Amino acid sequence: MSSVCSTVKMTDKNGDLNFLNQTATQWRDIPQNPITYAPKSETIMLSGGLTILQDQLIQSALQSLGENYISMPNPNFESFQKGKAYGNRGQCNPTYFTVGNLVKYLQNLRDEKGLSAEEIVQKYVYITAGGCGPCRFGMYITEYKKALRDSGFDGFRITSFEHDKGIFQGDDIDDEILNFTPKFFITLIKSVIIGDMINILGYKMRPYEVETGTVDKAIETCRALVSNAFLEKKSLIKTMWICRQTLESVKLNRLQPKAKVMVMGEFWAAMTEGDGNYNLHRFLEAEGAECIPQPIINRLMLSLWEAERAVIKRESLHVEGAKRVDFSSVKTRAFIKLGKVAMKTHFHLYAKAIGLHNYEIPDMDKLAQISQEYYTLDCEGGEGHLEVAHLIESVKENIAHLVISVKPFGCMPSSAVSDGIQSLVTNRFPEANFLAIETSGEGAANFYSRVQMALFKAKQLAKEEFEALTLPEKIPEKIHNYLYQPHNEKAGTSAQLIASL
Ligand code: SF4
How many C-alpha atoms does 193 have within 13 Å on its Cβ side? Predict the structure, then answer.
């Protein structure tokens, strides 16, 4: 090793370049020394990585079931740097952010809270979604284990639930740690759905608030109300009704023509609210746009749709000597149906109570049908055909003035779709205002500048759409109430409101 190289070391153990002189050894997924883990009653579960509100609601929801559960803070740039320092090279961006976030959290427990690394390894466990890929998703758990070993937490437990199996997890789940019962599953789903709704309403209202900060304040009140309802086992429907009154008290001026921007792309990059996508949603709002976020329920519906399709395909295979009726697939189908009904029912009940009238859970069959000409439905990596479907749907139904696809640096499925297939889609739908943009964790200036350029055109479109309408002499007050949500062929909120009169 040259003397220059030997100075290139990070402050912690990682970055030690002595490996250059060593013989390569086989990677082992097991801790080097035996560890006696704490019993379930003393084990603390960690997770996180959804929107900030959803992480907080999930914490209250699971604590209400008696689980010793903590949602970690949102990943930030420091998390990303730790992920890069301890992770393998060439990973996709969400891997670095989420893996680094866990390392950062544990290091904080050790260095700030004074817990020893042994104590942390024995007592804490991290829960994450897993799957078999086909992208890097299948390697996440190994990445976590490698980074944790190299950062001084060898043997730290990671347990996962298969993202596409829902309640039907099979034998993979670690029952000792995670009680993945129907009650656990439904409570989790409720917190995610309620979080989705409050987030959607926040994005609809914030750009039009008369006094800066009032929507965020109301959303925080709603969060506290819902968290409390979970912990004190109060009626969630009633709580959503109280949230409705809180939101209704916020003064809005909705007659401002603002560009409507659909943010989609790879699940994590499009959904996260922080450095993972350079705070894209807040940046758009600060630039005078209204965002259409991607709710988590969309991803859950896609997972169920993919699981159902896999069962149907398996059933259509002719296997010699197979049973006439395969009860395992009958059971799986029943569970999928049950999962769908449970999600839709809860969604409609809560939506009605909080006043989210114009949001429909996406029809997965319709989205599959409009995209299958461009993207095979059998390819399940990332968002599969959904990115293509969202863009086509947005153009055909005039949903937004701009569609942004956020693709993390190094993402295999999303890059292939955005760089390849979407160029054919935009060729066939030239009216589409589409921007595929990469988030690398670095390079914010370039990112913002490209977003601003696409936004300029979107703002013009929103202005033209609004100015083409004739304003009535008397504008009713209901127009500024968030509960008034007309749906018509216009894209912008202010144009929709005027066109509805
Ligand atoms: S979809 Fe892309 S970003 Fe997400 S895990 Fe797969 S490769 Fe990584």
Answer: 29
Q: Ligand 1 centroid vs 276 CA: distance in angstroms?
A: 13
**Residue from 80, 91, 95 to probe ligand 1 pocket by mutation (most atoms less than 8 Å from CB):** 95
Query: Whole-angstrom Cα distance, residue 368 to residue 389?
Result: 7
201 touches 482 (CB < 8 A): yes
CA atoms within 13 A on the CB side of 283: 19
Distance CA 225, CA 239 (A): 7
Give CA–CA dist 342/336, Å, rounded. 10
Q: Which atom of ligand 1 is nearest to the CA of 91?
A: 8
Q: Checking DSSP bridges between strand 157-162 and strand 124-130, what pairing results, if any?
A: parallel
Structure tokens at 57: 């609601």
Between the CA of 87 and the centroid of ligand 1 the distance, in Å, is 15
| Close Cβ partners of 410 (under 8 Å, ≥ 6 residues apart) | 90, 91, 92, 93, 136
Rg (CA), the chain: 24
Q: What percent of the chain has pLDDT over 90?
A: 65
pLDDT, one tens digit per residue, over 340-381 is 888 899 999 999 999 999 888 899 999 999 999 999 888 878
> Is residue 278 a contact partner of residue 444, using CB atoms and an 8 Å limit?
yes
β-partners of residue 61 are none
CA angle 433, 438, 443 (to 5 degrees): 120
458 C-beta neighbours (distance < 10 Å), count = 26
Angle between helices 182-205 and 214-231 (to 10 degrees): 170
| Whether 184 contacts 226, CB under 8 Å | no
**For ligand 1, mutation pick of 139, 163, 266 (most atoms within 8 Å of CB):** 266
For the chain, which residues make up each domain, given as ranges? 27-180, 183-248, 259-317+326-377+385-499
pTM of the model: 0.89
